[in-house]
Specification:
- The chain contains eight helices and seven strands; from the N terminus they run E-H-E-H-E-H-E-H-E-H-E-H-H-H-E.
- With 250 residues, the protein is of the alpha/beta class.
- The chain has a single domain (8-244), classed as Rossmann fold, CATH 3.40.50.
- The chain has a seven-stranded parallel β-sheet with strand order 3-2-1-4-5-6-7, sandwiched between helices.
- The longest helix has 28 residues, at 105-132.
- The chain is globular.
Length: 250
């Protein structure tokens, strides 16, 4: 088990799903964790679970697509815990299915604002603190759709491919400062967002049938990868994209 005692980090989209599991996993390993989410009540509940697991936690409400909100949230974590050593930029949304020609500009802008601009803004305000610390690690949640096309999801696919590219660019630019940046690319994972998107068991069953391991991923499995990427065990890993999908794309 990686030790994060005396380490400070933050997780966005930490109110539910992979983000909640990640925040708890870091806390269980001794970290102080900024629990960032657009929903204050869910952030507060995750913070409670982090503390129950043995970590310290600060719930912070944030809109990752709004720069003043992101700047204030990162500053709140740094002020509370004295610095920043790692970040898991996990906040994201899914959108409606459909062909590109039917995609409205508003939906396109919404998807990129949260999924891609949100990651950009978080890294923009996290990186100076990691550099000041002498190094650190960032994990950005992309998706299997950041590595391969998915039919009728043009905005989501574009946003998640952007996260992979942005992570690589930051890894190249900040490696000299001791900062590692990687992308986590989950396949279908049992989260409230997936359940809402698939509208019940029929959609989930179709996804399960396409997975060689015969089941959805668990949030804790994705969180374990994020923890590893932020740990000293991954000290030579930067600019990579890790896909955890149960063999779906194999």
């Amino acid at each position: 088990m990686s030790d994060f005692t005396n380490k400070v980090g933050l997780v966005t989209g930490a109110g539910t799903g992979i983000g909640r599991a990640s925040a708890i996993a870091f806390g269980a390993r001794g970290a102080a964790v900024g629990v960032l989410d657009v929903r204050a009540e869910e952030a507060a509940e995750t913070a409670r679970l982090v503390e129950a697991a043995g970590g310290r936690a600060l719930p912070v409400t944030v809109d990752v697509g709004d720069e003043p909100s992101v700047a204030a949230a990162v500053s709140a974590v740094v002020d509370a815990f004295g610095g920043l050593d790692f970040a898991h930029n996990n906040a994201g949304i899914m959108g409606a299915n459909g062909p590109l020609q039917d995609l409205g500009l508003e939906e396109w802008d919404r998807m990129l604002r949260v999924n891609l601009t949100g990651v950009f803004l978080c890294m923009k305000h996290e990186l100076p603190h990691l550099v000041a610390r002498g190094g650190g690690a960032i994990v950005n949640t992309s998706s299997n759709a950041g590595l391969h096309a998915v039919p009728n999801m043009p905005a989501y696919v574009a946003s998640k491919h952007g996260v992979v590219g942005l992570s690589k660019a930051a890894a190249v630019d900040y490696g000299k400062h001791g900062v590692r940046v990687n992308a986590l690319c989950p396949g279908s994972t049992q989260t409230p967002m997936l359940e809402a998107y698939t509208h019940g068991t029929d959609g989930v069953a179709q996804r399960v049938n396409a997975i060689p391991l015969g089941r959805l991923g668990r949030p804790e499995e994705q969180a374990a990868a994020a923890v590893w990427l932020c740990s000293e065990e991954a000290s030579f890993a930067t600019g990579i994209s890790i896909s955890l999908d149960g063999g779906r794309r194999a």
